[in-house]
């Protein structure tokens, strides 16, 4: 089981989950996340390890399967960045989200702040028939 203080290799383990394998247990989350962790991603904001665990479990339950793979980890002092790709299989479709997580560690080495940065809209609606071309058109108009 992973324990603080976390290093690059243990963060790589925490942010790796192949399709078909179980995600971390509540006990594993509690070992590395502070009781009052602040979690933010493009779809939600949660306070506390129980809310964080509920958010992670909810994602896994809504999907047929989930994968997470880490490409890079950078650490300095009490701060870490993890670059990753997440895949979600839902009703026969696969959605891929490249992203980055910013982690801040408390004095005890556990994670006190966790913020995920990724594009939720493009990968979610881009592959959907009819909706995909509209999303790509909007992106072209406002991003290009």
From TrEMBL:
It comes from Parasynechococcus marenigrum (strain WH8102). It holds the Pfam family SnoaL_2. It comes from the Bacteria. Gene3D superfamilies: 3.10.450.50. This is Possible transcriptional regulator. The lineage of its organism: Bacteria, Bacillati, Cyanobacteriota, Cyanophyceae, Synechococcales. Residues 26-114 form the SnoaL-like domain. InterPro entries: NTF2-like_dom_sf, SnoaL-like.
């Amino acid at each position: 089981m992973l324990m603080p203080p976390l290093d690059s290799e243990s963060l790589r383990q925490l942010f790796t989950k192949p399709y078909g394998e179980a995600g971390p247990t509540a006990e594993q989350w509690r070992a590395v996340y502070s009781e009052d962790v602040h979690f933010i991603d493009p779809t939600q904001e949660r306070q506390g390890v129980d809310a964080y665990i509920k958010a992670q479990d909810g994602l896994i339950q809504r999907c047929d399967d989930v994968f997470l793979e880490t490409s890079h980890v950078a650490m300095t002092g009490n701060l870490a960045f993890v670059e990753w790709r997440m895949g979600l299989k839902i009703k026969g479709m696969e959605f891929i989200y490249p992203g980055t997580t910013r982690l801040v560690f408390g004095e005890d080495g556990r994670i006190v702040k966790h913020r995920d940065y990724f594009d939720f809209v493009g990968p979610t609606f881009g592959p959907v028939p009819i909706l995909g071309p509209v999303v790509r058109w909007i992106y072209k108009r406002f991003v290009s």
